[in-house]
Each structure stands twice: as structure tokens, then as C-alpha cells.
Amino acid sequence: MSIDIDTARKVAHLARIRVPEDNLPALASELSNILTFMEQLGEVDVDGIEPMTSVTPMRLKRREDVVTDGGYPEKVLKNAPDAREGFFAVPKVVE
Amino acid sequence: MSLNKLTIAEARDALAKGDVTSVELTEACLSQIEGAGALNAFVHKTPEIALEMARAADTRIKSGDAPAMCGIPLGVKDLFATKGVATQAASKILEGFKPEYESTVTQNLWDAGAVMLGKLNMDEFAMGSSNESACYGNAVNPWKVDERQLTPGGSSGGSASAVAADLCLAATGTDTGGSIRQPAAFTGIVGIKPTYGRVSRWGVVAFASSLDQAGPMTKSVRDAAIMLGTMCSHDPKDSTSTDLPVPDFEAMLTGDIRGKKIGIPKEYRMDGMDAGIEKLWADGTAMLKDAGAEIVDISLPHTKYALPAYYVVAPAEASSNLARYDGVRYGHRAKLAAGEGIDDMYAKTRAEGFGPEVQRRVMIGTYVLSAGFYDAYYNRARKVRALIKRDFEEVFAQGIDAILTPATPSAAFGLGEMANADPVAMYLNDVFTVTVNLAGLPGISVPCGLDAAGLPLGLQLIGRPWEEGDLLNHAHVLEQAAGFAAKPEKWW
Asked: What PANTHER family does the record point to (chain A) (predicted)?
């Protein structure tokens, strides 16, 4: 499976990483090389095998559905690049 | 002997006897760190915190209430959240981030009285095998045999370099595909990745959640046993951390492995294998046999597919985990030009904040999870992962107690030597270690000898799930038999 420039552009967009148009051919070829390496997986007979969901057989623990943490908005916002009036601030999203 | 050169066990005994204080140990390490800028191992130093913790530890030791780790100065990989102290995962995208919370693993260590010297270099987001992708620049291996500077391995390269150069008594590391064991092997120290679920992942910056585990990087197997015991705990804040009792690992180092069955997997004998590695492996096998173990040839037929499966599963999980770095809640945010909106903010922030290898893996992960390719890549890789785990289950069912393999395909290579290589060539460093993460097993790297050039080489032992105590005992026997005592000559 080789990745063309359009696919590379689409993947970069889905990943929300800006890639300059000039860099797309190199990116496409790098991603293609990595995928070629992964093609080996096609040789394996996986008939009847369930995809692994948990590496150790375990049942997730249950607990009461109650609030156990919180109540410190100033700590939550402490590292924000832009926080105002108790909220994270971002560029305008609604016209 | 300089105090910074002590092992944890030696320091613990000297502290208990009152021969040294934690402040003295800590000052010895701090002065070594000051003189070791050339190694670029410590990237955020916390001397004031260290001395305050050391004074508290000394008070506690005097009062007679002192767990084994009390007063022991440690380095912490930059991946662990440390309250009020820079935590960046060696990435520009987390520049300036100071967590308001402490990771469970480091909290367990501080509760036991251990002392934090600072944060250690690593590959960005733990993605790499040479510590060349850090925003801090390369960490450097204290081992040197010619004019070249060598990699300490990765991703826990700063941890390995710091322990090997005696800048600290031990360090924390994390291992997603070999990131504790490969750097340990490259620097002549011990590193163990415990069973998946043994150690809490809470507060450890996530790379690939189904594979990540933290573990100790130490100067001896005994130290690994002591420190691992303190790091392990059941943690309600990590739903995958297991509610099992943590045994006294150190007490399990009996030195007796008579009658144990050691598996030698034929699939790990690669074409064109380095002759020094092959000899080391044969020597290690003979040592375990001499100690009374039975050597059994085994087969792990899906080994060949571990690397491609890993390089689907790990980037897939990474692409999802790293979606949180969007310039909104913490870290770097790109400056926007007039007319640019929130989508531009995300895409510019991530392009500026993530280095090339992280961008590559996030995009590969995005691709293998995208509509139309999910089944062909991601689901297939998870099925192959199930088969890799089954291979191990079958040999353990045959009565195998531990498996002996090389830790790495080569000794440490020169920094920059892989700069123009295909990314896949770098991924091959993990060939002997990734299977263990995919199967969730415990694995340990033990320094066993020097190659022809005089660089350290390690062997890996793989254990049964939850049997870290037994695994450490095998490693202890191997360590004693190999008698590895070489240290890097100080040039820094």
C-alpha cells in the first residue's frame, strides 16, 4: 500500500498537524516505507483469532457512581495558555 | 568510595547504621550532576527540593521508621508528572508545564522517603531508541571508546546515562517497546519492565496505554528488586493497575535456580547476528546451566511479526493519546495570524510543538485507524498480538520458568549515525524487546559483558506474568555469574 500526496495531505489534516505543501512528497514516501514494513502482517493466518482488547485478563473494577474529585478550577486552569474568568479561552468558534 | 557510587542496598545499610546521612548522599550526587553537563542527562535540576527531602529522610531514619528507599537520591524520567516541577516529556509542546499533581509511582517513592534530584532526558514522548528526539538535545552515553559520542539508548536515555555515570543511585524509567531494557543494556546497568498492570500509569504521560509500564533502572539486580517493590501498588486512579499483593522481591533473591527451566527461543537467532551478541547469549546460557537450571530449546513462532504489529498498535494508541495536545489546556499554543481560527490553532500548535518522529507516529496512527484501513492494519495487528501472547502462554504451559534472549541487536551506536537512515532501521533496535510489551510480560536486562570494542552488552530474561520475584532471582544468578563490574572511564 503506497501513500500518495493526496492521502498524505488528508492524514495530516486528520491528525491536525500542518504540513507545508512542499513537504508532502517526502512525508508520503516516509509513510509508505513504514506501511510497507507493516505489510508483513498480511502473511499471518489470523482466521478465528479475536483481536486483543486487554493484555491481562481482567474485569475492570466498579465503584459507586459518585463525584470523588474536583472543585479546584484554578488548579485546572493553571497551565492554560489563555484562561479567563474561570474558563479556557480559544479563538472565536461561533460567528 | 564516593557516596554517589553506592548502590541502593549499600546506601540503605550505611544510612541505617548512621555511617552516612541522606544529606551527604544527596550532596555527593548534586555535585556530580553539576559536573556532568556534557552528558545532558539531567534536564531540570531540583537541588533545593532534594536537600529538603534529604533532611526529612534523615529525621525519619533517626526516628527508626525508615523503609528501604528512605534517603535514597533518585533521578526521575521527564515523563512522570511531578507536582510543581517541569514535566515536559522532552517535548516543546509541553514547554512550561508544571503539573498540579504527582504521578502515583513518584508519590510512592516520596512516601517511602526517597529524594528527587531532578528530571531526566528522554526521547520526545518516549518515542525513540537513541534519545536523539528530545527538545533538550541528545543525552550522551558515559561509555566512550573512541572520539565518537555514543547514544545511551532510548527512550529512557537520560535515566540510563545518569545511573551509569553515578549521578544518582537509581532512576525511574518507562518501557513501551524496550525503553527501559535497551538503554540499560547500552550503558551496563539493570532495568526491569514489570508485568503490565503491576505499576500504576496514573500521572505518567501516556504514549501507548496498552503497552506502557514504568520500572526502575539501577546498578544491580538487588537494587531493582528494592526499588520495584516501592514503585508497585494497586491504584484506583489507573483502572488497569492490578489488585494483587506486592511480594518482598528482595527476599526472593535466593540465588537458587536449580531445576528451573530456561527457554532459548530459536526465532531470536537472527540472520547476520552480531558475533559478540551471539557469544554473550551462549555464555549466559552456560552460566544458567552451571547454576543448575535446565536449558530447553523453545519456539515462539510469531516473533517475526512483533515489530510490525507493535508499529501499528503503538502509533495508533499514540495518535489517540496525543490528541489532547491542542494548545487549549496546557503547554505551547501557536501565535495566530489575522483571520486564522481554531482549526488553524490546532494544526499550527501541533506542527510547532511536536518533533518529526512524533509527527510521523501520530500520522501513521491516524492512518491505520482511519475508515477503510482500520481492519486491514489495526485489527489485524491486534490479532497478531493475540498470537504473540499465545506463543508465550504455550511455552510457559510446557513448564518454562524464564526465557533468555539478547537485550539488543548491537552495542551502543554513535549519536547521529542513524540520522539519514530509514525510520524502520531505528525501529529494529526493539526487535528483542517489543514482544514482551505486546504480551504484557515482565522482562529484565542484565549487563553481562563487553564487546570487542569495550562497550557493555546485556542479556534479557523474560518471566511469567506477575512472577517478577522469580524473574529477579534468575537475573540475580546471571548477574553473579557474569560478574560484570566494568564502569565507564570519566571523560565528562
From this structure: GLUTAMYL-TRNA(GLN) AMIDOTRANSFERASE SUBUNIT C, MITOCHONDRIAL
